[in-house]
Amino acid sequence: ALIMSRLAPENGASPEIQRLAARIINAQQDEIATMQQWLKDRDQPVPKIEIEGLNLMIEIKDEPYTMYKKMRGVLSDQQLEDLSEAKGAEFDKIFLKYMIEHHSGAVYMVENLFNKDGAAQDREAFRLASDIQVDQRTEIDRMQQMLKQLSKSG
Questions:
Q1: H helical segments located in the chain
Q2: What pTM, to 2 d.p., does this model score?
């Protein structure tokens, strides 16, 4: 989501999409910081996250972590490339389509977590997961409406 959202200004996204992208960046950065602090508080390894262009690098204990690429909603390298090459209204449409897919992956992960016995028993973890799920569903609804409007006007 961070990589996709950072492309909005440079790819001529509409002001509405740029505002959405800025909100997504803020929300994601806050969620990452919260999860990293949660891990620190429990003396767990904290992933290091770095973004260079279209590449997301995650390290845990100084080892590359690439399993995230198999998670539902994570875009393929080709999808990221396609998005990075799109401009203007075409960017807006692809951005919304891919971000809906990405957010749906987050909703799936939270549902999966809540379906596991004993998971999310920690009050902070439960609250964070619940908040993420509600926020993602709300944004999915908003983005679907935006996509409908773009389809009608273009």
A1: 2-10, 15-41, 77-85, 88-114, 123-153
A2: 0.90
